[in-house]
Amino acid sequence: MKNIVRFMSVFIIIGAYNTRFSFLSLNIFLAYIPLELSFQFFRVKHSYLKLGIAALFMLYFPNIPYLVTDIIHMDILNIYNQFTGDSIKNLSDWALTIVLFLSVFSFVLLGFGQLLKLMMYTKKRYDLSTVQVNLALTSICFLSSLGIYAGRFPPRFHSIDIFSRPWYVFKTIFFDWSVVKLEIVLLFLFLHLCIIGVMTMNRQLSKLN
Questions:
Q1: Is pTM beyond 0.70 here?
Q2: Is residue 191 within 8 Å of 65, Cβ to Cβ?
């Protein structure tokens, strides 16, 4: 399973590089990092190493739901005539549409699945209640929503900025607020919680079957 994820990531990164969706190569690479970290989390035995990997996972996790916002790039594709309301028979652009959808769907499914797996591990390891886990999960989703906002809207931070200018990133994300920023962050939080809710319902339905 892990090797399939790795192969899929490399395939998309290389395949998208010379297309109009070249941005997807970097975004998929950044979304792959937390997945690989989650794989390593369950492989290592040392508790301090696990803690460090978990911290890095949380740091890079926003790159996964960030992929959802890549739908804004759909406007560069010639697949729809806004004047007639008809779809355009453009094979290459429809192929890119499908690649984008499958990339977002796959990484969101895998990424949130690993997040929930980590939370269940934490619950058992530290004997936490369901309420505590849900509060922690909501907090993580809120921080992830802040991360998406910081990466999508001006001044648009990149992952490397966390290490190259940490104080400026921290100050901008946590102390520079506006009503619009709060509304968008809460909208992203709603997205996170809906994804988790759907995945939870799917697990419950699977148990019934």
A1: yes
A2: yes
